[in-house]
Amino acid sequence: MTLPQSEAGLAPGTAAAPAPVRAGLVRRLLRNPVAVGCLAVLALIALASLFAPLLTDQDPAHSSLTETLAPAGGAHPLGGDGVGRDVLARLLYGGRTSLLGALLAVSVALVIGVPSGLLAGYYRKWFDAVSSWLANILMAVPAIVVLLVVMSAVGQNTYVAMAVFGVLMSPGVFRLIRASAISVREELYVDAARVSGLTDGRIVRRHILPVVQAPTIIQAAQMLGLAIVIQSGLEFLGLGSATQASWGSMLNDAFANIYTKPVLMLWPGGALALTVAAFGLLGNALRDALDASAVSGRRARRAVRNAARARKAERARKAEEAEQAEKSVTAVKAGKAGKAVDSAPAEGIGAGPSTVPVPVPVPVPEPVPESVPEPVPESVAESVTESVAGAESPGSPEDTKSSADADGARQPKAAVASAKDDDAPLLVLDGLRVSYPAEDGEKAVVDGVSLTVRKGEVLGLVGESGSGKSQTAFAVLGLLPPEALASADRLVFDGTELGRLNRSEMNRLRGRRIAYVPQEPMSNLDPSFRIGAQLVEPVRRHLRLPASQARTKTLGLLERVGIADPERVFASYPHQISGGMAQRVLIAGAVSCDPDLLIADEPTTALDVTVQAEVLDLMRSLQRERNMGMILVTHDFGVVADICDRVTVMQTGTVVESAPARELFAAPRHPYTRMLLASTLEDAEPRSALGHATARTAAGTMHTARQEGRA
Ligand SMILES: Nc1ncnc2c1ncn2[C@@H]1O[C@H](COP(=O)(O)OP(=O)(O)OP(=O)(O)O)[C@@H](O)[C@H]1O
């Protein structure tokens, strides 16, 4: 079965009040005297052309030989042209032809270029390849030659020529829109929107169009000027309609009489120069106004990105410190006792820089016989067993059985009964394979991964960085990038084969029944929209609630996730809240439609240590009160011990071990699991002696403290 990939982005938010970055555009434009002047000139020209019959009673096409080159005055305020037609009437009516022709050309260019650019940039794949190829061909064609051919073929019809010119200009629009759409679709908040189940149409309207509208407006203003020049050029060459007044044909007539009456050049030439200059300058003013408007938006985006970067750098620093600490501890231990860590592949520890604080073993250790589990360092086994002792794991039947065997009479009956109630598998993933095109064929990043999640069960998906945890989660969500090649023997969610769902069916499922909490809260909120707007839209869409009820529900959710001032946060932009708050906001959004399955991809990694514990507590309590199934992607065994019922351990794209949390911590079977555990939950002494309070150590410590508190 081939799995669906993501072809676009999604977003948690939507139809909200536009951000202030756009609100001030008109005001800014009107504050610019050049823009006001240009608008006034263009308005004057447009009105004069529109109301030409009111401004002159002369027929622009009526020729009177007696009025040939008549001087200005009387019935002809601007005189007569070379064949005795009224110059003023031709100037006024000619404006119609020029403006309408230019508008037609630009409209055609936009109608072709905008949707195709959006589709190509948003969906990519074959449509992008084909449309880019066509655009390149069109751009290589010499426009003026094509127009000459068209006019000679279809007759002297200016509007047909302008429509063709619009087609020839459309590749420019296409490329502009496509590039903008590609850059926006890569944003995490667009992914977040998709996860929340918004349709592609809404995502495009809300997240892509606002970004492409500025360059489109500027481009349109410049194209209008260009179209008028090209059209007048054709008419000047005598290719326009003989009966239709136009500025180009006036220039043609004036040129023929340039020595006898040069002033005839002045009127059409002046009108053309004024109009083209006004469009050009207006385009510049619009660009300035949009740039200024976008500054605050860009600042907000930059602030969000900088914050994310800073957090990433901090994590990398901490990971490095942790690695150093572990190396030192390992060295000390090896020197002192030469035991425990010897069981871990020494060459793997600390191999290469890692962005997470889990040491990276390079070689895959051979599994040891299941019947003889290698002992974990005593202190580790004790501390972890203690840690998970309070967890009530529903577990899978096999897991529950083995767990019961392991724990014997200690297994509470209530827990067994509850395990039976929640026994139906919510998610079954079998034989997932994800690969990407590589120079030498394909590179598999997930290879045969299988897992099951039951209702009300928290499954921890653990492994080193790059082991394929996120790819597995994205495959379930149907959010793998378009270039991913994904297949699975089975991917069944609550009885529905996900691979068979079409795009809109998957959209309906995501956000409503399968929700997602991402790793980087800030990058998953669109900086241009208020938090409230971003939360309300999915609620309205999925639950079909009116705006006021959706707002009330959202405020209640914000309160539920521990936000002290929901009204303020509701009305805030993402850059106005902290990372911890942003994660709470995203958790509120994820549970807003009461999903059955919540996929959380390292939801605490980007957070401060103290906030991590609060967010984990919150997720656990939400999961329990809603009896949600949950996949928690993490590299942190402290987190696993805290809230997971079962654990699946991944290494280099494969599952090496899967067991109830209690069982796995008490007797890990695979050497890799033992190595991860040993490196994660060392006894605290050497670390505190070294003074490295890594997030992981702290999480483990806090977890132990909490468990002790519960005991
Ligand atoms: N678009 C892509 N093209 C090629 N390879 C990719 C792509 N996305 C991910 N990968 C590769 O897939 C592998 C698994 O990545 P994944 O993000 O699932 O790891 P992870 O276990 O979640 O790691 P982390 O904890 O660091 O997020 C990595 O080696 C990564 O480089």
UniProtKB/TrEMBL annotation:
GO BP: peptide transport; transmembrane transport
Q: Please list which residues make up the signal peptide.
A: none
Gene Ontology cellular-component annotations: plasma membrane
Q: Which SMART domains match?
A: AAA
The main location class comes to membrane
In terms of SUPFAM superfamilies, this protein maps to: MetI-like (SSF161098), P-loop containing nucleoside triphosphate hydrolases (SSF52540)
Q: How does it sit in the membrane?
A: Multi-pass membrane protein; Peripheral membrane protein
- Write down the Gene3D superfamilies for this protein, in alphabetical order: MetI-like, P-loop containing nucleotide triphosphate hydrolases
Q: Name one GO molecular function term.
A: ATP hydrolysis activity
List each copy of the ABC transmembrane type-1 domain by range. Answer: 95-287
The annotated regions of Low complexity compositional bias extend over 327-341, 377-393
Cellular compartments annotated: Cell membrane; Membrane
Q: Where is this region: Disordered?
A: 306-419
Tell me the CDD domains matching this sequence.
ABC_NikE_OppD_transporters (cd03257), TM_PBP2 (cd06261)
Establish whether keyword Transmembrane is in the entry. yes
Q: Composition bias, kind Basic and acidic residues: at what positions?
A: 311-326, 398-410
**Record field: compositional bias (Pro residues):** 356-376
Family annotation (Pfam families) = ABC_tran (PF00005), BPD_transp_1 (PF00528), oligo_HPY (PF08352), OppC_N (PF12911)
Q: Which PANTHER family match?
A: DIPEPTIDE TRANSPORT ATP-BINDING PROTEIN DPPD (PTHR43297:SF2), OLIGOPEPTIDE TRANSPORT ATP-BINDING PROTEIN APPD (PTHR43297)
Give the record's family classification: Belongs to the ABC transporter superfamily. Belongs to the binding-protein-dependent transport system permease family.
Q: What is this protein called?
A: ABC transporter
